[in-house]
Amino acid sequence: MGGYNQDTNTFELWQCEPNGVAWRYKGVSLGSNKNAAKTELERLDPKLGELSVLEGARNACKIIHGVRDEQSSKKFTIDVSFIGGCH
Predict the structure, then answer these.
(1) Cα angle, residue 64 at apex, residues 39 and 83 outer, rounded to 5°
(2) Which of 75, 82, 58 is nearest to 3 (CA)?
(3) Measuring CA to CA, which residue among 5, 11, 1 is closest to residue 87?
(4) Distance CA 86, CA 52 (A)
(5) How far apart are the first and last CA of the chain?
(6) Quick one: average pLDDT of 52-64?
(7) What residues are paired with 12 via a beta bridge?
(8) 1, burial (CB in 10 Å: exposed 0-12, middle 13-18, buried 19+)
(9) Which residues make beta-bridge pairs with 28?
(10) pTM of the prediction?
(11) What is the mean pLDDT of residues 50-76?
(12) Is residue 64 pLDDT above 90, yes or no?
């Protein structure tokens, strides 16, 4: 989940696990290719706290596209939505 914290005037990214544990991140990856995605996120690490929402979404799409399983016969589509603007 991502959102804006009015108390600190910052955007935050959280991962919530099924057992109720929540972790705050600059960038996080999940799924079968999470290690490859994590490597790509680490390359962005110096910028992760400074990217705009639009830049973050663009980078996320590039990473998802770059690490996806190209052998899969599943249709590949990325849908991105913004609520509240692209600061």
Answers:
(1) 115
(2) 82
(3) 11
(4) 7
(5) 17
(6) 85
(7) 3
(8) exposed
(9) none
(10) 0.64
(11) 81
(12) no
The whole-angstrom separation of Cα 10 and Cα 16 is: 19
The alpha carbon of residue 59 and the mean position of all alpha carbons in its chain are separated, in whole angstroms, by: 8
User: Is a pLDDT exceeding 70 seen at residue 76?
Assistant: yes
- Token digits of residue 11: 């955007």
pLDDT of residue 33: 85
Token representation of residue 61: 């799409």
Q: Are 41 and 48 in contact (CB under 8 A)?
A: yes
Is pLDDT of 37 > 70? yes
Tracing tokens 């992760």 back to the chain, one arrives at 48
* pLDDT number for residue 19: 93
Residue 42 tokens, joined: 């680490």
> In the structure encoding, which two tokens stand for residue 25, read together?
């991140």
24 within 8 A of 11, measured Cβ to Cβ: no
Q: Which two tokens stand for residue 87?
A: 């600061």
Percent residues over pLDDT 70 in the chain: 90
